[in-house]
Amino acid sequence: MFDRYDVGEQAILVHVDFSDEGEREDLAELKMLVQSAGVEALDVVTTRRPSPNPKYFIGAGKAEEIAALVQATSANLIIFNHALSPSQERNLEHICKCRVLDRTGLILDIFAQRARTHEGKLQVELAQLRHLSTRLVRGWTHLERQKGGIGLRGPGETQLETDRRLLRGRINHILKRLDKVSKQREQGRRARRRVEIPTVSLVGYTNAGKSTLFNRITDAGVYAADQLFATLDPTLRKLDIDDVGPTILADTVGFIRHLPHDLVAAFKATLQETQEAQLLLHVVDVADERRDDNTFQVNEVLNEIDAGEVPVLMVYNKIDLVEDMAPRIERDDEGKPESVWLSAQQDLGIELLFEALTERLSGTIVEHQLRLPPKFGRVRGVFYSMNSVQSEEFTDEGGWLLTVRMPAADWQRLVKHSPEPIESCICH
């Protein structure tokens, strides 16, 4: 039912430059998408228009030119770097005598190839079904014919109506299963909130190096490759950060300009990790000449999924590809880390990232020297369980002289809930 590529398929690429900046797409990005899908690009057709043609998206003359090119090159696929309406796809297929796919269909196919987990596959299928539901008529010759139903079809129901009904049923079934997954994720988030474990979410334009960075700091072994949408399935790992303690790091799907709305809706459960994170690590490919535009596009998607207000730490990755660029932390006027420059591939500046995470997540740090009597053994154990003990000496009374360091919020909470008067043990 879906447009799926076979290995070795050959395509003609079509790119239109519009006068409206908001309608423009990136030709270099289309070539990367096509390469990621495993399709060979035989030729590229470019044209300029003030606005899309309602019938063919491009002009009728250009459509004839592409049809002739398909015949000359024996291409079996035409890929547009734009979103086409179902009627435009049908009209182009009729005149070119081969399959036509738009940018959304191409991205959907790449997602289908990359999804590995059960949840990821469900999300991709949901996006595909929603995309397909508007394109059911194409390629079917019997759909408008009324056909008596055996078991499923009612009297006088056309094949097209049956297909639409079956699609709706499958979509509803997937939505129920995804809702169950979403509830399971929410239970996990509630549990982390109860024990106050912060969540840090990696976001960024596709192919910015998020998964490579994720693997570098967690040893997770997540699939990483120099291609678009190498990672689809969300992965969570635990980190131990100085003065913060256990922290959850989430790797998420890469963003792209004009990300299809069906995909945003389908990946809502995944993107929830981004919405509810305490901090976003916005990874940027510093060697990409389009990095400013890519950063803007990521911010647009973050606003679209209601994550625009989450605090952000910029991570400028791949500094090894830029001449005379060294790892560093940039701070704002208050001295708070604003951005980290590093190379995940070459393991440069990773310690600076941990330093910035400590400062951004821990808030105010307090340090106290405590003289604990022997009966405070349980309190001593709590300090050790929080990884906050800096040094320890035994006292003549059989107790302990501890130097502890921790976030001020944790100290206040410990003082409030401890059965022993901890503050009375502070050495002045």
SSE inventory with pairings:
Layout: E1 10-18, H1 27-36, E2 40-49, H2 60-73, E3 77-80, H3 86-96, E4 99-101, H4 103-114, H5 118-132, H6 159-194, E5 199-204, H7 210-218, E6 235-241, E7 245-251, H8 261-266, H9 268-275, E8 279-285, H10 291-304, E9 312-317, E10 328-331, E11 337-341, H11 350-362, E12 365-372, H12 377-385, E13 389-394, E14 400-407, H13 408-417
Descriptive overview:
By secondary structure, the chain is of the alpha/beta class. The protein has helices at 27-36, 60-73, 86-96, 103-114, 118-132, 159-194, 210-218, 261-266, 268-275, 291-304, 350-362, 377-385, 408-417, and strands at 10-18, 40-49, 77-80, 99-101, 199-204, 235-241, 245-251, 279-285, 312-317, 328-331, 337-341, 365-372, 389-394, 400-407. The model is unreliable at 1-7 and 138-153 (pLDDT under 50). Residues 198-365 form the Hflx-type G domain. GTPase that associates with the 50S ribosomal subunit and may have a role during protein synthesis or ribosome biogenesis. GO terms for molecular function: hydrolase activity. InterPro entries: EFG_III/V, G_HFLX_dom, GTP-bd, GTP-bd_M, GTPase_HflX, GTPase_HflX_N, GTPase_HflX_N_sf, P-loop_NTPase.
